[in-house]
Amino acid sequence: MRTDDLIRGLAADTTREASPGRAVTMLLPAGFAVAGLLFVLLLRVRADFLPMLATPWLPFKFALTLSLAVVALVLLLRLARPGIKAVPAVIALLVPGGMMALGIAAVLGVTPPETWMPGLIGHNARYCMVLVPLMGAPILVALLLAMRKGAPTRPGLAGACAGLAAGGLGAALYALHCTDDSPLFVLVWYGIGIAALTLAGALIGRRVLAW
Amino acid sequence: MIDREEAWASLMRSALAGDQAAYESLLRELAPALRASVRRRLAGMGQSVDACEDIVQETLLAIHLKRHTWRTSDPFGPWLFTVARNKLIDHVRKRGRRIEIPIEDFADILPAAEERPGTDAADVERHLAELPTKQRAVLRAVAVEGASVAEAARKHGMTPGAVRVALHRGFASLASRLRAQD
């Protein structure tokens, strides 16, 4: 086909996709709803949720996981647009990173050393490692579908970012249930769950986000 | 060069607001600029320039299908150069070479546009033949024969809405076939 003809055809095609931002706004709630359904079916909100909300430890889990999710989402939307530099925005990951460091410093500073290991090992580490990725999985699917409307020049990195955001949101959801509150536990076991989802996002993203 | 990018940005803004004529003239201006830069890059890498027109067409398709990822408030140049670089890298990588091209290279050579209208390309034509019948018929009628959507609808006994859908799906599947080819 001649290029002139191709151009004539392209100009006649007035169908336009939703922008990456709109696609995320439309699909993310759907992914979150499925994750919420999984939560209702499999888990329940911890019995001591309200009293624990008054301690620093439970709000810490939400602040950490939600700030991670927000930063990853912002990064993701930048990666969706060609010509927008995403790498400088990586610095924003210092927010959840710094929060994690503060949490660790707090636990090591104010709690007695003999509680550190029990806190780290917790009660439900194995469930946590499985349930964080499970809660995040529908959100990852939604974000990957939304990103297919975008044009990430680095599909693997974009997929990893989607996995990180999904991991953060999935972890926040799981934190409604989880009774292990030590930041050491969160660092290790939530970390493993979120890392697994990030890796999955990277691997899937490389395949499905190329354009 | 900044002037030209600003003119392109303004055409794209009109295009995204629904001005089909502005869109067509934008694509017609971009084609020779892309052709010149792709040929320079291919020659610079010691690759045959035979594939030039295929890459230009694949890039135009990508610009078209991803135009909603450009925000009207962003500069147009970096968006365009990134899409073009991506398509060139894809094309060369499929032929087994790993390459790195700094984005500045695109910005530098774009002013040196040279017109070679009507150059033939093989890839789009080859994949067009494998599209579903309706998509292929509509795409040919509108692009090659220059039919309007309404004319194509009458000719193939479809509603105008169905023609629009077939046209868009046709371009989208052409792009994904081009990406998947070896």
TrEMBL record, chain A:
Membrane-spanning residues:
26-45, 57-77, 89-112, 124-145, 157-177, 183-205
Give the keywords, sorted: Membrane, Transmembrane, Transmembrane helix
Keyword NAD part of the UniProt annotation:
no
Name assigned to this protein: DUF1109 domain-containing protein
UniProtKB/TrEMBL annotation, chain B:
Protein family according to the UniProt entry: Belongs to the sigma-70 factor family. ECF subfamily.
Enumerate the spans annotated as RNA polymerase sigma factor 70 region 4 type domain: 124-173
A single GO molecular function, which one?
A: DNA binding
Domain RNA polymerase sigma-70 region: residue ranges = 28-98
Give the record's keywords alphabetically: DNA-binding, Sigma factor, Transcription, Transcription regulation
The protein's name: RNA polymerase sigma-70 factor, ECF subfamily
Species: Kaistia soli DSM 19436
Q: Does the keyword DNA-binding apply?
A: yes
Annotated GO biological processes are: DNA-templated transcription initiation
InterPro entries xref list: RNA_pol_sigma-70-like, RNA_pol_sigma-70_dom, RNA_pol_sigma70_r2, RNA_pol_sigma70_r4_t2, RNA_pol_sigma_r2, RNA_pol_sigma_r3/r4-like, WH-like_DNA-bd_sf
Transcription found in the keyword field: yes
- What Pfam family is a match, any one? Sigma70_r2
* UniProt cross-references to NCBIfam families, sorted A to Z: PRK12512.1 (NF009165), sigma70-ECF (TIGR02937)
